Amino acid sequence: MKKINYFENLNLNVRHALEEDIKTGDLTASLIPKTTQAEATVISREKAIVCGRPWVDEVFKQVDSSIEIKWFKAEGEPVEADETLFTLQGPARSILTAERSALNFLQTLMATATVANDYAKHLEGTHTKLLDTRKTLPGLRLAQKYAVACGGAQNHRIGLYDAILIKENHIFSAGSIANAVSQAKSLYPEITVEVETENLEEVQQALDAGADIIMLDNFTLEMMEKAVNLSHGKAKLEVSGNVEIQHLPELAKTGVDFISTGAITKHCRATDLSMRFKSK
């Protein structure tokens, strides 16, 4: 599995989030005296998988590096409803200014990790791996890919630059599966080449062309089993299209190598979090 630097955009993600929220200044926080210090506790209102600590830390660092953060949960660790995630100590103004941006990152990444974890659990005990897709929030591709990994699933290609996925319109434009794969192998001999197929005839064409991975798009269980027999290990097989969590075990039983779904990054409901100031 390729090594991914999930944090290369972290600083920029945080800076943009703070810029859109604060702009010329936090008007409401300015009502509080600069010297007022505060302690705050952040809890999860529901069961979830913890994910997003580096983004939270960076938000508070960029707003005010004097804020002290104490975490009680590690990345990838489950949390129960009403459990404390972390505490904060520092200037009240700064904590309040940073609060929403920090919790926005945290609630989104925890939600992604939690959904990925729910899906991945349905494949435990099988050799089939759960993959994400490129259906991520704009600007948060690496962050959500990181959350998927925290949740126990695996990453598909990161973007258009690190792997080749030849889809229906690419095939149409290239003239055939054979032409598209041949061109890909010629131009990028070190890059993984995947072909999306819609029927068993196309699976055979992709195998004959030497594809590394063959995507089975909206195949029936019977078609998947036939594709596994056709491939006989010549290429990795990936199931995709209308994947529902309750059907994962039966999909895995067909013998496919991967199941990919955009649901783990785009069908997420933000985790319910709460921050409360403590009385001194």
Sum up the overall morphology in one term.
elongated
Strand order of the largest sheet: 6-11-10-9-8-7
Cα(first) to Cα(last) distance is 50 Å
Number of continuous helical runs: 10
Q: What Rg, in angstroms, do the CA atoms define?
A: 23 Å
Low-pLDDT residue intervals, each spanning 5 or more residues? none
Please describe the biggest sheet, giving its number of strands, its sense, and whether it closes into a barrel: 6 strands, parallel
Number of DSSP strand runs: 12
Mean pLDDT: 96
Element-level helix/strand string: HEEHEEEHEHEHHEHEHEHEHE
Strand content: 15-25%
Could you estimate the helical fraction of the residues in percent? 40-55%
